[in-house]
Amino acid sequence: MKQPRYSRLAIKILLLILGASLLEVLLSGLVTQHALRTDMQNLLIEQQQRVNRNAVQLIDRELDVREQFLNTLAGQLALSGQVDYAASEQLIRSQRPGIDGYFPAGILILNTVGIAVGESTRVEGRLGTNYADRPHIKQALSSGEPTISKPIMGRTMRTPILSISAPVKRANGEVVGLIAGVIELERENLFDAAVNLTLGVPSRLYVMDTTHQIYVTSTDPHLAMQPLPSNEASPLLAALRSGESMGLLANAETGGEDLFIADGMPNLGWRVVSLTPMKQITDKLDPILAQKLVIGLVFFLLLSLALILLLRRAMRPLSSAAQQITEMMDGSRPIQAIQIDRTDEVGYLVHAFNQLSERQQEQALELQRERDLLRSQFEQSSDAIVLLDINSLQILEANPQSSRLLGYSATNLRDRPFTELLEANQAPLPELLKLAMTVNGHSNMALLRQFGGVVHCEVTAASVGLPDQRQLMLNLRDISERLRSEQLKNDFVSTVSHELRTPLTSIYGTLRLVNSGVLNGRPEQASSLLLAAEDNSQRLTELINDLLDIDKLEAGKLELDLRPLDLDAQLQAAQRMLSAVADDAGVSLQLPAPGKLSVQADAQRLQQVLANLLSNAIKFSPPGDVVTIEVEQVEQYIRLSVTDNGEGIPLAFQPNVFQRFAQADATATRQRGGTGLGLAITRSLVRAMNGRIGFSSMPGQGSCFWVSLPKALPDSTPAHRTDRVPDSNGSKAHE
Amino acid sequence: MNKLERIIHIEDDLSIQEVARVALEIVGGFTVKSCDSGAQGLAETPAFNPQLVLLDVMMPGMDGPQTLTELQKLPCMANVPVVFMTAKAQTQEVSAYHQLGAAGVIIKPFDPMTLSEQITEIWNTWHEQ
């Protein structure tokens, strides 16, 4: 048998758990990464929205502060009454720190017609230049309200600028001049704070004048005054122009995406747009994920180690138990309970195995016991038992009684088709077997013995064995003896019936004829018939007496008075009783010389025996012949023999001489008289008196019947009780 | 069909033979030939030319069935019924007699006053068939 690999289970469990753990680590990493990425993205969007709004507020506030400052200057200039070079110089001198702080590129003071009359920073050719053609100057002068210009090219500075104009108004509202603050867009300016509002993320910020389709400023100041690119050239502008205020754009340079967020400054017609590369997020995520992966792997390794140790510990007793079971199976270890000190499932399993093993052993013993019992029943059964193959009906096994019954040896019976044993002229075997298998049923079969002869059996059959190996078990009970005895009984009844009816026929017929008056006038015929009827009545009486004797003898109810009897007296009594019969037959009886012998017997029954033997001898002797009686002592027995010289007994009949109603000539009864029961009764009587009876005979040369009876006991006195010699009852025994 | 007149009776028991003779001759008016044995019956039959044979079963020498078999070989027995008269009359025995070819079975003891009627009835039935 191949040795199973017990480590496989542990490895399977280990692989399963570790695989599941690894999968968990990877899956949780993926989920975390996805969640983190989404969270970071949302955070970034929120942050950038905030940054963008802050930038807008910052720009707004800076512009507002500068506009207020210019209004303050305008107010002071209005108080001086005249907007001219002197007033401007004075104002600039007095306000120099504020002017340099808010407007590093300087301020320009224009008179009421738009001619420059003062400047904080000297630019050649600017004073005296008329700026009234500039739309925002013209608007401020005419409306009397402050204005902020669009980005414009400085006329004298030749750089892109932004101009904030504050009209100088008298108390009555008359505009007498204008102060314009210049913000140089390409230099450090009021947008710097806004542009640098990126919270560490390298975003870019664009301030666009959408009205005039130019950049106001950006993280890159050189973009100031540059026209906004076309939709084709810039996906960002295309998105903004289609009305989107937030979204992602593919970035061909980084291969990733950029987040854009736009806020409007409607009063100026500007848009503040921030653009942040998303790669920044993933760049920040990767280390987090790597760290988590490392932690996961370390945990995984530790788990693996712990699992291996635990499993080895857990599997060791299981392996040990399996090893013990294997050794029990191959016989190298006696079958016994497996010893294990565990209370877990392994202990439970081993305990269950031990119980199973114990029960199995008990069952095996029980089976063995039953098998032995069945085997001994099979071997010792007084019925013959044979096992047949259910299909071929060949004998598989036969018990010793089968051999005795059929004469074959067990080896000779094996493999023999059962049909071969069946005598001809019976129903086919399958039909007989079918009948034999019926509940409470049986079939009778006549079976052939090996060396001739037939044995009659009552057969019952049952199907036995495993479903795929069905066998037929036949129980063969020898009923030959029973059949013989039934036949004998039937014959006896038939014979008795015949023997009773025959004399009755004569008696009844005669009486009926006489009574009917048919024989009136025929007295001789009537007399002859009545004499015959009388003889037949006598015969009927004898027959009935004999039958009663037979019945008593067979039932063991005959009471015998066994005592010492003087043999000479007994023989003389018998001679007296039969002298008339002998005379009629012309036969003489010859007794032995007195011998003073005595036998232990019943006097009446001894006379019956002697009368029977003597009357038979007389009956079969020719007239003028002599029947001889001889006596001799053989050890403790007295042997009496009666010899005649008659026709003798045919050899074929000799075995049946002592059978009831057996007569050499079946109808001799009518010729010789007698009931046909005499010798049967005689033998039973002799046996009842502890004696034996036998004969020798040759056909044509006469017969010799002998009786051997126990000698009388020495201390007892022989009784000379000839008075007890039977009367008419004793004469019944003759044949 | 002729009238039944001649009957041979084969019976070894002389008292029964006598009762039957009186019953058949005096009561029935038949002519009866009594024989003591089968052999005698066989010998007498051709000369007597019986119209019916009444046959005992248990007889010394040739018994009833043997006698029947021999009788059947006689030309004069071609159309003569044989009736068994016996004390061995168990069911299977009676059916055996019929199988042998007996025209009827009369069971002993029989009633001599009605024996002739019984025999006539068997005779009639035999000839009707």
Model regions low in confidence, pLDDT < 50 over at least 5 residues of chain B: none
Structural class of chain A: alpha+beta
Q: What gap, in angstroms, lies between the N and C termini of chain A? A: 87 Å
Number of strands of chain B: 5
Radius of gyration of chain B: 13 Å
* Mean pLDDT across all amino acids of chain B: 92
The share of residues in helices of chain A is 40-55%
CATH class of the domain at 559-732 in chain A: Alpha Beta
Helix content of chain B: 40-55%
Mean pLDDT of chain A: 84
Quaternary class: heterodimer
Looking at the structure, the CATH topology of the domain at 559-732 in chain A is Heat Shock Protein 90
Classify the beta-strand content of chain B into a percent band.
15-25%
CATH architecture of the domain at 559-732 in chain A: 2-Layer Sandwich
Shape of chain B: globular
Question: How many beta-strand segments of chain A?
Answer: 23
Query: Largest beta sheet of chain B, briefly?
Result: 5 strands, parallel
Give the CA-based shape of chain A: rod-shaped
Count of DSSP-assigned helices of chain B:
5
Low-confidence stretches of chain A: 1-6, 666-670, 719-735
Say which CATH homologous superfamily of the domain at 559-732 in chain A is assigned.
Answer: Histidine kinase-like ATPase, C-terminal domain
Report on the architecture of this protein.
The complex is a heterodimer of chains A (735) and B (129). With 735 residues, chain A is an alpha+beta fold. Among the domains of chain A are: 335-376; 381-478, PAS domain (Beta-Lactamase); 485-550, Helix Hairpins; 559-732, Heat Shock Protein 90 (2-Layer Sandwich). Chain A has 17 helices and 23 strands. Chain A has helices at 7-79, 85-94, 96-102, 135-143, 192-195, 235-241, 279-330, 345-380, 400-406, 410-413, 429-437, 480-516, 523-555, 567-585, 603-619, 668-672, 678-688, and strands at residues 107-111, 116-119, 147-148, 152-153, 160-169, 175-184, 204-209, 214-218, 246-250, 257-265, 270-277, 384-389, 395-398, 443-448, 454-464, 471-478, 563-566, 588-590, 598-601, 626-634, 637-643, 692-697, 703-710. In chain A, strands 1, 2, 3, 4, 5 and 6 form a six-stranded antiparallel beta sheet that branches. In chain A, strands 8-7-11-10-9 form a five-stranded antiparallel beta sheet. Chain A has a five-stranded antiparallel beta sheet with strand order 13-12-16-15-14. Chain A is rod-shaped, with a radius of gyration of 76 Å. The two termini of chain A are 87 Å apart. Residues 1-6, 666-670 and 719-735 of chain A have low confidence and may be disordered. Chain B is an alpha/beta fold and 129 residues long. Chain B has one domain (6-123): Rossmann fold. In chain B, helix 3 links the parallel strand 3 and strand 4 (82-86). In chain B, helix 2 packs parallel to helix 3 (64-72). The model of chain B has no long low-confidence stretch (mean pLDDT 92). At the A-B interface, helix 12, helix 13 and helix 16 of A face helix 1 of B.
